[in-house]
What we know:
The structure holds 2 protein chains of 2 kinds.
Chain A: E1 2-3, H1 6-21, E2 25-31, H2 37-48, E3 54-60, H3 65-70, E4 77-81, H4 90-96, E5 107-111, E6 128-134, H5 141-144, H6 146-151, E7 154-158, H7 170-180, E8 185-188, H8 197-212
Parallel strand pairs in A: 2-5, 2-6, 3-4, 3-5, 6-7, 7-8
Helix pairs in contact in A: 1-4
Chain B: H1 3-21, E1 26-34, H2 41-51, E2 61-67, E3 70-73, E4 79-80, E5 97-101, E6 105-112
Parallel strand pairs in B: 1-2
Antiparallel strand pairs in B: 1-6, 3-4, 3-5
Helix pairs in contact in B: 1-2
Amino acid sequence: MKDILDRNQNMAEEVRSLLREKKVMMVNIISSPGAGKTTLLERTCEAMADKIRIGVIEGDVATDRDARRLQKYNIPIVCINTGGGCHLDSHSISKVLGHFDLDQTDLLFVENVGNLICPSQFDLGETFKLAVVSTAEGDDKPAKYPMLFTGARAIILNKTDLIPYTNFNTASFESDMASLNPGITIIKTSATGGEGIDRWIGWLTSQLESFSAG
Amino acid sequence: MHELKIAEELSAMVSHHAAEAGLRIVERVNISVGQFVQVVPDLLEAAFSIAAVESVASAARLEIEIIAAEMRCRRCGTEYRPDDDLHACTACGSTDIDVVHGKELFIKSIEGE
């Protein structure tokens, strides 16, 4: 019996051990298209880029528009265009790590291709996965895409400012999440308006501290 | 469409194992796929036939066994199949559970000559 994704898993372990040695925490961000990954990264850079050395790997089917949005923060960014591919894999991450000075990096974000199914299947060697879901997508997403939501350490519930205009049921979302992944941290934000960003930064900082403490 | 990437990895593995076993032609590849892996069998079959086109498995038949999700409750020990996509224990309602089956993705056997 041979695991079909052995090669991806082996490379992911190589990436993980290199990043552990270099003391770089890598966060693999997964969401649908338009949930707010790039806006969340903008807010994160604004709050942290002067204290924490951040790098970003942007995975996109085409264009470098997301990468250009982050250029103003003066951080190293590498763009991977998958040319139609629906997810990143550990080999694509390993290939671009050489573009970063890992000795001068504390935190590396991977903005995966917008998709709830395929990216959750491929370990990139990340420290943890972060799921982002926006209220406009509906409260049933965790139940429909359990692979991602059971595998993530935290979930950003974004666009909470839109709840009055949708049929999003926060209680039902939270009870589904409690059933799927009781240990998960749920952080509610409106990344555009900045609401909840302080909670996200606080949580992320605590993760960085426990990561560097080993 | 992660089926294409899975098919490419599968094709490379089948070629490797066929060479090790001295097979000239692979006739059948048997794999197991857990329910949570979210693979569409028809898509995986089509993707495999494309990925394997220039290999010893170009005419191979791909047999996919889907393994249903199965959980074990850590609190009361009940083993159960979840009713729906939510995973809580059907006996005691606990969410402290282990996934026993449903995440598999492996080659069971390769047949050929």
